[in-house]
Amino acid sequence: MVMNKQVSKIVVTYPDRLTRFGFDTLTDYFSYFGVNVEVINENVYQSPQEELVKDLITLVAHFSGKLYGMRSHKQKEVIENVKNILA
User: Are residues 50 and 86 in the same domain?
Assistant: First the structure.
């Protein structure tokens, strides 16, 4: 929609609601198409260390969620297979 110039403004509550990483790059890309990105609850200044810690926590949370999701899926598959064998 941005590339087709169907929107002129994107409003998000926090930058990570639009993208986890590369927010500035994405907003620069959008501005090329004349689209403005407005962040409602933009944090006050964060030091580079604070940003790095936040990014690392996001990565760990994301991949641990995927890992637990994979385990959950595999467990459901095993239970279904056992049910089918016993039936």
Answer: yes
Count how many domains the chain has.
Answer: 2
Q: Which amino acid is at 79?
A: I
27 and 64 share one domain = no
pTM over 0.85: no
Q: Which two tokens stand for residue 43?
A: 């944090």
Render pLDDT for 32-60 as a digit per residue (tens, 0 to 9). 999 999 998 876 667 788 878 888 888 88
Going from the C-alpha of 85 to that of each of 33, 56, 81, the distances in angstroms are 58, 43, 6
List the CATH number of the domain containing 22: 3.40.50.1390
Backbone angles phi, psi at 9, to 5 degrees: -150, 140
Is the backbone of residue 34 left (phi > 0), alpha (psi -120 to 50) or beta? left
Please give the residue range of the domain that contains residue 76: 46-87
CA distance linking residue 64 with residue 69, whole number of Å: 8
